[in-house]
Structure formats: C-alpha cells, structure tokens
From TrEMBL:
Record's protein name: histidine kinase
Organism superkingdom: Bacteria
Lineage, highest ranks first: Bacteria, Pseudomonadati, Pseudomonadota, Alphaproteobacteria, Rhodobacterales
InterPro entries listed in its UniProt record: HATPase_C_sf, HATPase_dom, His_kinase_dom, HisK_dim/P_dom, HisK_dim/P_sf, Sig_transdc_His_kin-like_C, TCS_sensor_his_kinase
Histidine kinase domain boundaries: 249-459
C-alpha cells in the first residue's frame, strides 16, 4: 500500500492534518489557560466585593467557603491607591511565579501554557488582573494551579481524539477522491499503454481521449499522437526493411553480373582498334563505379556490424601503415600524405574499424585533391585531452560545397565527387559512434577541410 500513489497520499493527508491540528492545539491550550485564570479572577472579585459590601467581619469558615468557591487562596483588591487584603488563607507553599493578565502577548500566553502543560505537580502562582466592570484599579490572587494542569491535560486529550477523528475522516474522503479522480485514470493510461504495447501495429488500440480533467486529457492526447506516429513509423520501417531486402538481393546479383562484365571489359584494352582503345577505359571505369556502388550498398545494409574489439594500440605505427597504403594508391599525383602523431601515444580502439574510418577520410581527401590536378598535402594530427583522444585529418583540397556539408554524413546523400556512393562517411561515423566517440566536420574552406575524430577515454554509459 505504501508503494502506491493513493497509499502515500493517504499518509501525507493524515500527516498534514495532524500538523494542522498541532498548530491549532497550542493556541487552544493557551486560550483555555487564559479563560481558566480569568474566570477565577472574576470569582475572586465577586467574593471580595460581597465581603466589602457587608462592612463587617465574617467568620473564618465563611471566608474559607468564599475562597473555595472562587478557586483562589487569597485576594488583594486595590481601590483608590490602597491595596487591601480582602480574603486570605494559609498558603500550602511558596508562590512560584507571577502571571500578569492585564496585557499579555500571544507569545507569552503560548509559552506559559506550554510550560504548564508539560510540567506536572502543584504550583502556586500570583495572578494580577484588571477588575471587571470597574470594580477597582487592580486585583491580585494566589491560585493553586494543580487543577489547571489536570484540566489542561483533559482538554488536550479531548482535542487529540477529536483531531484523530477529523484527520481519519478527512484522509478517508481525500483517499477516495484521489483514487477516483487521479489513481484510476492513471491506471487506465497504464492499461492502455500495455494493451498497445502488446500489438503496436494495431491501429484499433490507439487511445481515445475521454478524461474531463485537463491534465489527464492532455496526457491522453499526447499518448494518442505518440501511438499514431509510432504506428506510422513502424509501417514505414517495415516497408523500408522489405525494400532493403529486395535491394540487397538485386545488388548482390547485380554485383556478380558487373564483376563478370568488368573481367570481360579488361580484354577490350588489348584490342588494337583505336576506337576500342579510346572507349574501353571509360567502360571499365563505369563498371568499376557500378561495382563499388553495389558493394557499398551491401555493406551499408549489414545491420549486424560487429561491435568494436577495443584494445590499446600504439598510434604512430598504426598511422604509418595507413599513410603508406594511401601513398601507393595516389600514383603519380603529387600529394604528400603524412601524420604527426607522438611516438608514445597509445589509443584504445578497434584497429580494423579505425583503419576503415581513417582510410576513408584520407582517401576522400586524396581524391578531392587529385580532382583539382594541383599538388596537395594531407596531414593526420593526434593528441589527447583529459577525457578523450583526438585525431584530425587535414587536407589542402578545395573544400566542400555548402550543399554537401548539410548532408555530409547522410547515406546516399553525402557524395561529393562524381561517381561516389555517399556511403563512406555514413559508415565511418557509425563505426566511430560504436566506439562511443564522435566524427565531425570541423571546418571546410577554400584552404582545405578538417575532419575531427574524438574517442573517449572513460567508460561510455
């Protein structure tokens, strides 16, 4: 019960009601004490005026009866600047303190009442007050507060029981109201979510907003929109998956056909006919691009890309191998490919996957520089910060056009050079993200382009 919303609300309701009762109880006790003392002072004044009205001495037993009826031990009345002991008796003990009722502050009354409530035992106090209805200037009386303490305890217990009854009834009604207005609608939303989750492709399971409470109605509307968009997304993904499977089959068969055609086209280059010699290289290049497109499409369609096998790899020898391979591939083009990685730097990565990432970035830079026909330079820099290792591939190529920068990492959209598939950078970013890192285009201007790879040092949560 305590783990439910209604149960916790019930507990909080009882707690808050009791706090409110305590805030009411303390002033009530102070008021009860003030009324108790005021009533005895009024009785003492009546008894003293009755005695003064006779003008004669009265027997001791009558005086004792007047004091007992008034609930005081003695009475001192001040009239016309003179203090007169009107009624008196032997005090059972010393006067502990003086209480002035003429103009007490609320804090004083509460403090005195609280102290007396929690202090047991007899206590004699001297009470000073103004006589009622102009019966003098001042009246004083000694009062034994033993009965006051007992009366305050009885009054406090009555308030306690009354508070428990009020808090119980209030908590019950609030519990039922919250359960009816909040808990049950929330449970209905949960049931709807579970029902929809059992068959998210079923459009008949979309929730229909019915709540009259604005907040719950907003939640139902939001859930309805979410379920509607999810169904549309699932249908679209299913169609794309079917289309992807069909494209993969077509690409696989087409790759085999194109590979055969490429092997046959190689023989055309050995034909002596001038026209054939002029046309054959273009045919071979076109077939090569078609093969690359089909292979790239198949590679991108493999969703089961293995997770990275992370290990600590010395970076400088790793980059030596990549740069050497790209230098051989550059042919006669004057492109300097080098790296500036510190020899002692060790990076945690999957060497096979990072070889594909950096090889792709360097290859793209090399092809971009080669397309200009001018010499160029490609430099791979490396460093580390407190939280990550940083690799940058910098080139002196012509830079990327603005349109290409917008979709640079989008599959089939980020191709810049003619004949490209637009898959290389998309795959490279996915591989870097598999390391928990990021691949970003840092800048691309007329002076060149810089790609930034960041690999985290800490554990990726």
């Amino acid at each position: 019960m305590f783990n439910t919303l209604s149960g916790r609300f019930l507990i909080l309701t009882v707690l808050f009601v009791m706090i409110a009762e305590v805030l009411i109880f303390v002033p009530s006790i102070a008021r009860f004490r003030l009324d108790y003392l005021t009533e005895r002072m009024e009785r003492a004044q009546i008894a003293s005026l009755a005695l003064l009205g006779t003008g004669d001495m009265i027997p001791d037993d009558v005086e004792a009866e007047l004091l007992a009826n008034a609930g005081v031990l003695n009475v001192v009345l001040r009239r016309d600047e003179m203090r007169q002991l009107v009624l008196s008796s032997d005090l059972p003990g010393p006067v502990a303190r003086t209480v002035d009722l003429r103009d007490p502050s609320a804090i004083t009354l509460i403090a005195d009442a609280t102290r007396r409530f929690f202090t047991a035992g007899p206590e004699i106090i001297r009470v000073v007050a103004e006589p009622a209805r102009g019966g003098g200037i001042q009246i004083e009386a000694a009062i034994d507060t033993s009965d006051l303490h007992a009366a305050m305890i009885e009054y406090g217990l009555n308030i306690l029981w009354l508070s428990l009854v009020i808090s119980g009834i209030t908590a019950l009604f609030l519990f039922l109201a919250v359960r009816r207005l909040m808990v049950q609608p929330v449970k209905g939303l949960v049931r709807q979510m579970r029902r929809y989750a059992a068959a998210p492709e079923d459009a008949t399971r979309i929730i229909e907003p019915r709540s009259s409470v604005r907040e719950l109605q907003d939640a139902e509307v939001t859930l309805r929109d979410l379920e509607t968009r999810l169904i549309q997304s699932l249908r679209q993904k299913e169609r794309l998956a079917q289309l992807g499977r069909a494209v993969a089959k077509v690409s696989h068969d087409l790759r085999n056909i194109l590979t055969t055609a490429t092997l046959l086209s190689d023989r055309l280059e050995r034909v002596d006919d001038p026209t054939v010699k002029r046309v054959a290289p273009k045919i071979v290049a076109s077939l090569t691009r078609a093969v690359n497109l089909t292979e790239g499409t198949l590679a991108f369609g493999r969703a089961e890309e293995a997770p990275p096998a992370l290990q600590m790899v010395p970076l400088a020898p790793f980059l030596d191998e990549i740069c050497d391979s790209e230098r051989l591939a550059s042919g006669d083009v004057e492109i300097e490919i080098r790296h500036e990685a510190p020899r002692g730097l060790v990076v945690r990565m999957d060497p096979e996957q990072m070889h594909r990432v950096l090889g792709n970035l360097i290859r793209n830079a090399r092809q971009a520089i080669a397309a200009t026909g001018a010499p160029g330079e490609i430099v791979v820099t490396a460093g580390e910060s407190e939280s990550a290792w940083h690799l940058r591939v910098c080139d002196t190529g012509p830079g990327l056009p603005p349109k290409a920068r917008e979709n640079i990492f989008q599959a089939f959209q980020g191709n810049v050079r003619k004949g490209g598939t637009g898959l290389g950078l998309a795959i490279a970013r996915e591989l870097v993200q598999g390391h928990g890192g990021t691949l970003e285009l840092e800048r691309s201007e007329v002076e060149g382009t810089v790609f930034h790879v960041a690999l985290p040092k800490g554990r990726v949560e």
